[in-house]
Each structure stands twice: as C-alpha cells, then as structure tokens.
C-alpha cells in the first residue's frame, strides 16, 4: 500500500520549508509518526497535525533545523489550506469498533 496523500503532501512541504532533501524529509516524518504509533499509509490529517505539534519539532531540532516550531506551525496551516478529503478505510480496526460501538 502506498503512502497516503497527507503524508506525501507534508513531506514535499517540509522539503520546501527546510534544508532537508526529499529522502531526509520523508524519513524524518516517518520517524515522528513511528514515535506516535502511527503509519504513513493510514495517518489522518488530524493525527498528522498532532504529530506536527508534539513530535516533529524535536525531530527537526535533532537534525539542526532552525525555527522548528515555526516550520511545524506553517506546515499545519498548509494542511488545513489543502482541504484534504480523507478516504476512510472501513476495514480498519478503528472503523470496525466505531461501527460496533454506535
């Protein structure tokens, strides 16, 4: 399964906003997602924005990126402006439990 749209969008935006190249940007975001217990294939916009606030700034700081908090705020704003229509996986555990629970 390929990475989803919000991951790809964010990786491209991070590459533009920082000195990271494409591979470094994608890897940094993957590490932040892993720390949050998430996956690039299934992450939602809301989950990604939480990662941008709580995990990614430290990952960027560890890579020597200046103004990591400012970059993450800008990236979060770009995600909002992009207006992603998230495709839900109705077979995911979360979707199944949501249907069972009401």
Structure write-up:
This protein has 102 residues and is an all-alpha fold. It has one domain. The chain contains six helices and no strands. It has helices spanning 5-17, 22-35, 45-54, 56-62, 68-82, 93-101.
Number of strands: 0
Kindly estimate the percentage of residues that lie in beta strands according to DSSP: under 5%
Q: Write down the overall geometry.
A: elongated
Main pleated sheet: none
Mean residue pLDDT:
87
Number of helices: 6
Q: SSE order in H/E notation?
A: HHHHHH
Task: Give the tally of structural domains.
Answer: 1
Derived structural class: mainly alpha
- Helix share, percent: 55-70%
- Alpha carbon gyration radius: 14 Å
Q: What is the straight-line distance between the termini?
A: 29 Å
Query: Residue ranges: pLDDT <50 for 5 or more in a row?
Result: none
């Amino acid at each position: 399964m390929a990475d989803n749209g919000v991951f790809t969008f964010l990786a491209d935006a991070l590459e533009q906003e920082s000195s990271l190249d494409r591979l470094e940007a994608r890897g940094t975001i993957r590490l932040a997602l892993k720390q949050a217990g998430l996956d690039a294939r299934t992450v939602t916009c809301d989950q990604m924005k939480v990662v941008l606030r709580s995990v990614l700034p430290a990952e960027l700081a560890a890579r020597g990126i200046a103004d990591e908090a400012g970059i993450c705020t800008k990236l979060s704003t770009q995600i909002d402006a992009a207006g992603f229509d998230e495709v839900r996986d109705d077979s995911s555990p979360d979707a199944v439990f949501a249907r069972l629970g009401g």
